[in-house]
Amino acid sequence: MSGSRSPQVLIVGAGPAGLCCAVACAVRGLKVVVLERHATMPIDKACGEGLMPDAVEVLLQLGVDPEGGEIAGIRYEGDGHTVSGSFAEGRRGLGVRRTELSKALFERALELGVEVRTGDGLVDVEQAGALSFVTTSQSGEWRPRAIVGADGSRSLVRKLAGLDQPTLTHRARRCPVRVGIRRHFRGTETQPARDRVEVFWADGVEGYLTPLANGMFGLAFLFSPTKAARQFAVASGASRGTAFEQQLRKFPELRERVAQAEPATSVRGVGPLRVASRALAAGNVALVGDAGGYIDAITGEGMAIAFAEATLLAGELADETQDAASALTRYRRTAQARRRLPNALVEGALVLSRRPGLRRRFLRSLERKPALFDSLLALHARAVPDRAVARIALELGARMALGRRA
Ligand SMILES: Cc1cc2nc3c(=O)[nH]c(=O)nc-3n(C[C@H](O)[C@H](O)[C@H](O)COP(=O)(O)OP(=O)(O)OC[C@H]3O[C@@H](n4cnc5c(N)ncnc54)[C@H](O)[C@@H]3O)c2cc1C
């Protein structure tokens, strides 16, 4: 194209974060363009596909109502313990195929007049004074008021805007590289807790069984591959299939149940999972969702975080009393503070994944007091006031400490 175009908001990436941000901006009357490197919509991705209640609520408020399997809570199974927790009354999660979510968000974005340019990937972000502008593979140069990097965990926007934060090596962190794989099955009779995401714990691996619509369920594993994660990321479909079988074998009961169901998709994988950003915004560039950093999928709330950031950013950008730089500064402060609690929950869950003794005490504590599990889920879904966080953490800590002596 000749010359450059200047929409109010240019979003890179039409994943859940990018499309949700586009819809939230368009609802507020902003002129939005989305660039997506994939040639066609909808887009699929390896994911556990569980939308937590706060994520569902954001979607409904934006007029996005994807088809999914209702989720009333979470069920943990591992080390001889089974515990079930429920979301607060009136709140529900949804198990939604990524293709269905992508379709629902895309259609709503088009309905609101968002321009979604598929097959047009970002190739460069350059600085001109205080502002950045972008160049793409197909349409050339864009000089928007604000650039939103919603281009996932390998974000090019993050890198080119100087917002990459090198993560400590896994050796320095003393925690292994983690990856995720998933496959879909048809045959819900194999799922006793039909209205729960079932989480199966074993040493160094967790399995997630998520109820979806139309008699389908998804099964995802998070684990540390024996080979280097880089090799895993480029592995062929056949070796991902073998990796899936290897993980499934670690859960004999689950394997028996899955054997009665029919595979409905091939195995998809993603990894390594952990990436970080220095900040969630600088100049006229903001990051939302996985582009802003990602630790692990162990608590299954990546999309809830992405949707919360997308709507927060849209609200700041639509505020006509401030310029883009001030809007993004406010977004950066609030969004970074907002990530602290989910990040702490993820790091805590990763410790449980690596330490079987602690994990047993954790599961035993929840088994003895199921209401504590409900409180943890409320914390997870942001349904408790800040002052309750310390109380819940203290109670769990005390019960786990007592469990050591039991
Ligand atoms: C195994 C696994 C299980 C998970 N389970 C859950 C779960 O149960 N619940 C949950 O909430 N979260 C879960 N997550 C996390 C969730 O998948 C992510 O948080 C979510 O996909 C983030 O969305 P996003 O839009 O930020 O990134 P993405 O979904 O990665 O989307 C990024 C988009 O940007 C596009 N893009 C990339 N580069 C460019 C470029 N240069 N130009 C243009 N476009 C570009 C990509 O093509 C893609 O469409 C899981 C993750 C894994 C790995």
- Provide the list of bound ligands, each named once: flavin-adenine dinucleotide
Q: How is the main sheet built?
A: 8 strands, mixed
Content-based structural category: alpha+beta
Q: What fraction, in percent, of the residue positions are helical?
A: 25-40%
Q: β content, as a range? A: 15-25%
**Annotation, overall tally of beta strands:** 23
Could you tell me the radius of gyration in angstroms?
21 Å
- Low-pLDDT segments, ≥5 res: none
- The tally of helices reads 13
Mean pLDDT, nearest integer? Answer: 91
Principal-axes shape call: globular
Distance between the termini: 71 Å
Describe the structure.
- With 406 residues, the chain is α+β, with helices and mostly antiparallel strands.
- Helix content is 40%, strand content 25%.
- The protein contains 13 helices and 23 strands.
- The strands form 5 sheets. Strands 5, 6, 14, 15, 16, 17, 18 and 19 form an 8-stranded mixed beta sheet that branches. The chain has a 6-stranded mixed beta sheet with strand order 8-2-1-12-22-21.
- Strand 5 (73-78) and strand 6 (81-86) form a beta hairpin.
- The longest helix is centred in the last third of the chain and has 31 residues, at 324-354.
- The protein is globular.
- The protein starts with 8 loop residues before the first strand and ends with a helix.
- The model has no long low-confidence stretch (mean pLDDT 91).
- Residues 12-18, 35-38, 43, 45-50, 121-122, 150-152, 156, 180, 182, 220, 222, 270, 273, 289-291, 297, 300-304, 306 line the site of flavin-adenine dinucleotide.
